[in-house]
Predict the structure.
Amino acid sequence: AAVGVVTGKMHNEEVREDEDGEGFGALRRSVNVSVKDASKFNTEQILGFSKAIIDGSRLVNVPEGADTHPRLRVGIHVGPCMSGIVGQRNFRFCLFGDTMNTAARMEQKGEPDCIHATQDVVDLVPHASWEKLQRMEVKGKGVMQTYLLRSNKEILTDSRPLTAQDAFLASPLIHRIASFGTGTSAWTSTNTAESFRVGSYQDIQPVTSEVYSEHTFCFGLFFRKARVEKCFLDALARSDKNMVYAGYLLYVVVLLSNYIYGYFRFYVVCDDIGTLDSVESFNEGLDSTACLYYLGSDPFLSQNNSASTMTSYKNIVRASAFNLTPGSAALLLGLVVLGCASHFYIHKSRRFVHKYWALLNVWVFYLMLYGSMLGTTILTKRKDSSTSQWTEALWFISVTMDTLQTVFARSGFPMHFIFLMIGSGITLGWGMTELAKVEEASFSDKNGDNQWIGSLDIQAGLAPTRITSSVIQLAFFLLCFNVILVIGAYQEDISNRKRFLQSMLLLRQQDEIIAQKRKTEKLQKSFLESILPSNLVEQLQEEDRSALSLSQRHIGVSILYADLVGFTAFCKQVDPFEVMVFLNSLFRVFDDLCDLFGVYKVETVGDCYVASVGVATGRMISQRVDATDSTREYSIDFVDSYSRSFSTSASISLVKDAARSNTRSLVGFAKAMLLGSRKVMKPVVGQPATLRIGLHSGSCISGVVGSRNIKYCLLGTDVVTAAMMEHEGAPDRIHASQAVVDDVPEEEWEIFKLVEDRDGNKLQTYFLKSIQPVREDTC
């Protein structure tokens, strides 16, 4: 453990890679306090932590049947170090430097339930009850003055000791890994969700004016990206396709209402005009004047005044707002049917992938309807100049078509604005032209009796002042009406575009969240696979296994320990950063060899590289261990009992074959490690890296230890024996036990010596002769 690296008072310097990528050099300091103040504070913190873990370790009961109670031995040193990640498999955040090595030596030379510290620690915390020891020889450091701090051995009597099962079940990691397997990862609900709240995503409810202006131009009428504009128009066409049919239907209803209006107007209001016998009686009726103004004098002359004539189709359409002749009715109805059919075809046909063509289609047909009605009015005016119905028809056409186009066409503001300008321009232009042609007409009573209507001039029956007033009113009305429609259409279009942009940003945000979630899940899986074997992670996901079943027993396993020769003295001579770069280069060479030989990298501890075959790779023979079963015998040496579970000799042979295969793979990996290490040069000293490798085969148990900076570990007697093979070996040699030699007898072995394991048993060990050693002065 450390204080001052990521916790405590930090005095850090960030090392960055050079721009050319060939070296490192640029430093960025992150200094909050002075080095002296930081060292004093951090040393006091780590000293308090050391006391706490020694006291806490006494509260944990050992498994039943254990002969001894393990006791902690703590070593402390203070100084600079380098932090970073080495390797590319099962990577870990590590600390490097002479400070780390000195602290490790303090632990090795310490006593149980005591804190062993250097002079530097005592100088920073002199008030503690330090016990001065005799000067001792420390490997790689020479003679050092050290001190001992004995922890308080008093334990609260009411404290219930924690069992191993309690500690395992209380581990937060266990619940995190379990939730990852069920798809409800704790990382996703906490850390990942928190990262989303930091500000990675912008709130889009509602779309602000600043956001909208960033995505649009021309007063917000068009999106800056053409593909976005196409998507908006396509969405608009799809969402409002039924409104177009409703518009066409309402148009037909309005035309039919025009007939009804003409019938009642002529039959009810203007029916008795032909019975008037004097100018005085004519002038007294306001309705009479209006009828003569709009219908002209022809329907009311005596020679045409018959029942059949009064109720004829011609007189009804003359009395309506729009003179809908049979020909024009057929034309308009045909356009409506054709417009509906083409609109239906565009939306149903696969040829039109983009449905925004429907917007252009309805716009064109509405313009054709507008033009057809204006054409009908113009032709009617030229054919029958005795009526002023054309002024009322302009009102009817403008109001009907502009309203329907605004409400039902749904073609967007730009096309709507163009439609209004074209329609209004033609309507007012023709109206003003006709107004200029009107000449004054006089009404007089020339004949007395039935001939009370005087002679008519070329524009007989027209009142110029009424026409002028009507056209001026129409112009003013269209101006106001179109301004209202334009403003409303603009606001609606902007609102539609903002809603579309809001939906688009929401979808984009959802895609980013999904992508981030996938990235996070991938990172979580990668992180778990750097802690646990990949096959174990897959089982957690597929089988929905509880994390309590992570522990496994393995037989036929081959274990390797490799250590750098002279690493302590090397760290003393070289800058910690260069040490980290060197280790990273060396371990990357080993990591690249793992796939080639089917080896699983268990961990790296400082300069020690631990690997195995038969735990997560190779031929695996494993047995799950229920961590909640307190009655289970936790003996690691279970080969005999496991072998007895097989009912046939063929099964026992299968175990032996697996052990031989795994050992053969690991021996090949060890050879490649020695050859590869010779190609990596130590900085400053300029010598190749020299390894000391130990091999052993047997059984072990695997599992997760701790709840912070967790580790996937191999535990057992055979694991300790493999470490002892490395420790008792020689530089640039592969030191193996009798079990390894028995599994791979085809290799050239030479007897080395007898070593004693932790149980006091004598083991015959061997050196592999196939790899010729390289002379190394430093051991």
